[in-house]
Design brief:
126 residues, alpha+beta, Ribosomal Protein L22, Chain A, three-stranded antiparallel beta sheet, two-stranded antiparallel sheet, 5 strands, 43% helix, globular
């Protein structure tokens, strides 16, 4: 059974401005070390940061909550399997909420162009 669906769209130029303005202060507060390494190895890192930010926002929307409602964005990590398929790795309050809600599966899809990055999250309940 579907528990929730979330979608988010990020303007990559906005993400690039934020990263340039706040640098490591912003990046380290929002992204994991592995996400930072992944994004940093790409020529246009803002596109990849944007997709990961959209994934975090989409996850919160699928839960029916927003930022500042108990889950830190750093508790939500986008990881890729050996084929490049993205998924979410959770810790902290995000992991606790998922267990309490008996969510059994998290589906994630990411896409990006030069101008936009987007993510969709679907949560399934047992």
């Amino acid at each position: 059974m579907i528990y929730g669906v979330g979608i988010d769209l990020v303007e990559n130029s906005r993400m690039e401005r934020i990263v340039k303005k706040w640098g490591p202060k912003f990046i380290n507060r929002i992204f994991s070390i592995k996400e930072i390494q992944y994004c940093g190895k790409h020529a246009h890192s803002a596109i990849h940061y944007g997709a990961r930010f959209a994934a975090k926002e989409s996850f919160l929307k699928a839960l029916g909550i927003g930022m500042g409602m108990g889950v830190k964005l750093s508790d939500i990590e986008v990881v890729n399997d050996e084929n490049g398929k993205p998924s979410l790795k959770l810790c902290g309050e995000a992991k606790i909420i998922i267990k309490k809600a008996k969510i059994s599966k998290i589906h994630l899809s990411l896409t990006h162009t030069k101008n936009y990055s987007m993510a969709v999250v679907v949560l399934e309940k047992k």
